[in-house]
Amino acid sequence: MRILANLFLLLFTLFALSNIVLFAPDSLSGFPLIPNYITQLQTFVRYGTLFLYFVSAFNRHLPKLVFYPLFAWVFWSVFSYWPLSEVIGQAYHLCVGFAQLLTLFFLLRRNYRDNESSFLLVPSQFTGPFFSGRALLIFIIVNILIAPPAFVAIGYKLAAQLIDTSTGGFVTLQPDGLYMSEKTYQHNDKAIKLIAMIHLARPEYYTDIAKTIPKKNTLILMEGVSDKTNLLKNRFSYGNLAEFLGLTSQGQLDLSARIISPEQLKQEQPANEEQTQLDILPADIDVSAFDPQTIEVLDTLAKYVLNGDSPVDGYFEFNQWIQEHTDPDIDKTIMADLLDKRNAAVLAYIPEALQRYDTLVLPWGALHMKGLEQAIRDKGFRLVDDQSHLSIDFKHLPYEQMIEKLKAKP
Prior knowledge:
Layout: H1 2-22, H2 34-55, H3 64-77, H4 84-88, H5 92-115, H6 133-166, E1 171-174, E2 177-187, E3 190-197, E4 200-201, H7 203-212, E5 218-222, H8 239-245, E6 248-249, E7 258-259, H9 262-266, E8 278-282, H10 292-306, H11 311-325, H12 330-356, E9 359-365, H13 369-378, E10 382-393, H14 399-408
Parallel strand pairs: 3-9, 5-8, 5-9, 7-8
Antiparallel strand pairs: 1-2, 2-3, 2-10, 4-6
Helix pairs in contact: 1-2, 1-5, 2-3, 3-5, 10-11
């Protein structure tokens, strides 16, 4: 146990140093594996914290005054050190790293005074019976009180990890809201900007996005599935859901640009002519390219959830319909249509678009970003800028209004 405890102290030291390293991401551009190692280190430290925390209930030798403050730091890291991260911005990594090292120094100095020989734990601190019934009883009573917030924290972390993994890090769940990433990639004199979008957000989010898009020599490859043959019987609109949540739909994004067609993109540009305005090219596919099962699912989703009287009731009706009317592997079919086919369509425009424009902007749904980013990196583009925008502010959602609307439903 002493060896494991000392190993945790060494890992926590690296854990603190990793926050200092993360403060200067530009220095890591030549070492793309370092962020992965840091993520793995943080995972090891968190698992080690859980293990030692429960072991401390049975092992009275483990000095709680040394380890519990470190456990608190690790617990706070689950929430990305919120609200400190919101108050001081990206610099919070540096502040946290030095604060953790300072905490560790004082705790280890205390431990040195106790054992009079080493900053780390020594054999003399582990003599005698390791079990104490009184210590176990205190541990149980305390944990009955802290169990509810602990389960909330675990649920939050699992949700945050799922969102981060499925979006390739383009969406971050924080205690105060949902943040979307805007990443810029550069190759020679060309730039591609990937902007993770969400169908419903606070109005300021779309305003902020519009401000970051260059207005000169820029082409926006716009998302938006067409339905030229009216295969969808129900209107696919997020207006009702936006009203229920007190948010604004993506349709409110005002870009004030000229819309061009694929044919205009193919037209040869005169050598002496410079592209001076912001253009938009609809770069998505038509519903007719989807599998019939996908079309039926989308139409049912629009019927029950987007156009129903209650989004909550509609979701349960839609889920029941899915179970009764679709194959077990319908998810693969839907993902192939909604992600793979659409990603392939927008990526096909990029080589030709780069010949005429200096900057390409792809404001696409967050789930598309993981595949789009990999394809862009494969073309030689590297990340040069990363910004986050608050899309949904949990503090300002109309909870009372939402509850009243739910109560009003029969």
